[in-house]
Design brief:
Largest sheet: 2 strands, antiparallel
Strand order of the largest sheet: 1-4
Shape: elongated
Structural class: mainly alpha
Radius of gyration: 34 Å
Number of helices: 12
Helix content: 40-55%
Number of domains: 1
Strand content: under 5%
Number of strands: 4
Distance between the termini: 68 Å
Length: 312
């Protein structure tokens, strides 16, 4: 957890990993959208997105675990040994720490994956040329359909901070975090909640949780902050991390079930006749059951009739 937090900090707030400058075509219409303003002026600002992806899953897990603990009597009898045979951990607290800890780890991991993709690819936002403000005359760019590919970052005369931020579009970090949060929460609701009397309660709740993440992606595209491909890549990244953690780390939110004791087969069962045929103990069976010290010195003698029935 500490490693993911430190790595996410260096990706987000330091220059440890410089952003790759991909280059651009002169007069590229896909990058010439108007500048929408700073991120805080968005209809889905980062503060709101980060607050929702932190608060909604936390509240949902707390409510679900409290309800399950107080309404399921078997939960009160569960004990988890922490040290030796004397120290026990409350099952309610254990499950809360487990699920919320894994969720926090996945949240920072999603941030690292999104930032790493943005740093490595350097894909531009739809408003890149508006903040880059290249001098087409100096660059020798001809009006369309003339095309010149510019690879020099010095061609941008705009604010360097805005230019760097405009080169971090793929994948969309807000879309990735939103998708991770709702995927984790929806799987928790589906696998843990038990609602009787209505088959549409859980699907309605899950759709209500999915709607904000979809709206975040739509807002990012509508405000020219990301392309559709950036948003879809963010959704896939966050959803994949959530599915992996739920299925492989927390085992579908289920507690480990203690293996049942194997029942030893009863011994000395009486021999039951089959199809009305007489049953005679075989000498081989006697040898397999007898102890080594109890084997008599005299050889075993069986009649021919006993041998016939033993074969049967």
């Amino acid at each position: 957890m500490a490693g993911t937090v430190v790595l996410a900090y260096h990706f987000e707030y330091s220059d440890t990993f410089p952003v790759h400058f991909q280059g651009f075509f002169c007069y590229d219409n896909t990058l010439a959208k108007p500048y929408p303003g700073p991120e805080d002026s968005s209809r889905a600002p980062p503060v709101l997105v980060y607050s929702l992806v932190t608060a909604v899953p936390t509240i949902t897990i707390l409510v679900g675990e409290l309800a399950a603990f107080f309404f399921q009597p078997t939960r009160h009898k569960e004990k988890t040994i922490i040290s030796g045979e004397c120290c026990y951990f409350n099952p309610l607290l254990r499950r809360m720490i487990r699920f919320l800890g894994v969720y926090s780890f996945g949240l920072f991991t999603t941030t690292i994956f999104a930032n790493a993709g943005q740093v490595v690819t350097g894909n531009q936002t739809p408003h890149f040329l508006s903040v880059c403000q290249p001098n087409y005359t100096v660059l020798g760019c001809q009006p369309p359909p003339g095309t010149i590919y510019v690879t020099d970052k010095a061609a941008c005369t705009g604010n360097p901070l805005l230019v760097t931020a405009a080169c971090k579009a793929f994948p969309s970090k807000d879309a990735a975090l939103s998708a991770y949060a709702v995927a984790y929460t929806v799987m928790y609701v589906t696998l843990v909640f038990q609602l009787k009397g209505s088959r549409l309660a859980k699907p309605s709740l899950c759709l209500a949780l999915l709607a904000p993440a979809f709206l975040v992606g739509v807002v990012r595209v509508a405000e020219y902050r990301n392309h559709w491909s950036d948003v879809l890549a963010g959704f896939l990244t966050g959803g994949a991390i959530a599915i992996f953690l739920v299925t492989c780390v927390v085992n579908n939110f289920q507690s480990p079930v203690s293996s049942a004791k194997k029942v030893s087969p009863p011994e000395n069962l009486p021999t039951v006749p089959v199809l009305g045929l007489p049953c005679v103990d075989s000498s081989l069976d006697k040898l397999s059951v007898a102890q080594v010290g109890d084997i008599p010195d005299a050889p075993l003698h069986t009649s021919s009739s006993s041998s016939v029935f033993s074969l049967i």
